[in-house]
Amino acid sequence: MEKKIPRPVIKRLGLYYRCLNRLYEEGIEYVASKDIAERLGIKSSQVRKDLSYFGEFGKRGVGYNTYELMERLEDIIGVNKYWNVIVIGAGNIGSAIANYEGLRKEKFNVIGIFDADRSKVGRKIGRLIVKHFSEIDDFFKKNIVEIAVLAVPENAAQMVVDKLEELGIKGIVNFAPVKLRTNIPVEDVDITLSFKSLSFKIERNIE
Ligand SMILES: NC(=O)c1ccc[n+]([C@@H]2O[C@H](COP(=O)([O-])OP(=O)(O)OC[C@H]3O[C@@H](n4cnc5c(N)ncnc54)[C@H](O)[C@@H]3O)[C@@H](O)[C@H]2O)c1
User: Fold this and answer.
1) What is the pLDDT of residues 15-63, one digit of tens each?
2) 104 to 20, 97, 99: CA distances (angstroms)
3) In a domain, 112, yes or no
4) How many Å lie between the centroid of ligand 1 and the Cα of residue 151?
5) What does the CA dihedral 123, 158, 163, 115 come to, rounded to 10 degrees?
6) Per UniProt, where does NAD(+) bind?
7) Do both 55 and 98 map to the same domain?
8) Do 100 and 174 sit in the same domain of this protein?
9) CATH code of the domain covering residue 143
10) In the predicted model, is pLDDT for residue 6 greater than 90?
11) In testing the pocket of ligand 1, which one of 86, 88, 92, 93 has its CB within 8 Å of the most ligand atoms?
12) Is the CB of 189 under 6 A from ligand 1?
């Protein structure tokens, strides 16, 4: 039976991948778990343990071949794949996400943006035209949609998620400050948490 990979491990794989990318660009051919750990500020035993979920990568004494490990991680976390993304809510956050070119560079293609407010329908945001949320069924029939960004007010969030789940969405990046009830993977984004964490570090003089 396949080992269940804990969510925190999956999250860290993305960090490892970015770190390896940088190491590779710096021309570092082999890397020890200690080096990855130091760069990311975590324990090297943690790095070794996380990577061991996916089989034996490194060689004792030599470490990991940077490029090979990067390629293996690409396969595991699906970086080689393009993901189709839609944004629900064409307000401040939704518009910013739909306009963000960096996502496409990371292979997350925003292919649609939807809103319930008719006055926003037809507006151009980046390369996209805002569609009414009632057009979502039709959109799913014509497109493969894997990820949705939820940028609607708190009170609309659950209703939107229920609909997206019914249509077969695979995962959600949620900006609404609410715990969603769903069986699909959700990544909550909370900017206030970053501020709280920063103020905590400042107060305790932590770098
Ligand atoms: N996570 C964070 O760090 C963070 C930061 C700021 C705001 N937020 C949250 O993100 C969400 C969006 O914030 P914003 O500033 O972009 O709000 P906004 O009011 O600018 O935009 C929300 C949009 O959602 C649309 N909408 C409402 N109900 C809808 C529905 N049922 N279907 C489709 N569209 C619908 C509205 O018409 C509006 O255009 C809010 O829940 C807000 O609390 C989160």
Assistant:
1) 999 999 999 889 998 999 899 999 999 999 999 999 888 776 666 677 8
2) 20, 11, 10
3) yes
4) 4
5) -10
6) 89-94
7) no
8) yes
9) 3.40.50.720
10) no
11) 93
12) yes
Q: What distance in Å separates the CA atoms of residue 71 and residue 132, rounded to the nearest whole number?
A: 40
91 touches ligand 1 (CB under 6 Å)? yes
Residue nearest to atom 29 of ligand 1 (CA): 116
pLDDT at 78: 75
Is the CB–ligand 1 distance for residue 137 below 6 Å? no
Pocket test for ligand 1, best of 86, 87, 95, 115 (most atoms within 8 A of CB): 115
Q: Estimate to the nearest angstrom the gap between the alpha carbon of 93 and the chain centroid.
A: 16
Can you give the residue range of the structural domain that contains 35?
7-77
Tell me, yes or no, whether 204 lies in a domain: no
Q: Please tell me the predicted confidence (pLDDT) of residue 5.
A: 76
Encoded amino acid at 147, one letter: I
14 and 58 together in one domain: yes
**CATH code for the domain in which residue 17 is found:** 1.10.10.10
Burial class (CB in 10 A: 0-12, 13-18, 19+), 97: buried
The last residue of a domain, from among 49, 77, 105? 77
Separation of 115 CA from ligand 1 center, angstroms?
10
pLDDT at 58: 65
- pLDDT tens-digit readout, 121-156: 999 999 999 999 999 999 999 999 999 999 999 999
Choosing from 77, 100, 128, the residue where a domain stops is 77
pLDDT at position 8, please? 86
Among 55-64, 91-100, 166-175, whose mean pLDDT is lowest?
55-64
Minimum-distance ligand 1 atom for the alpha carbon of 95: 16
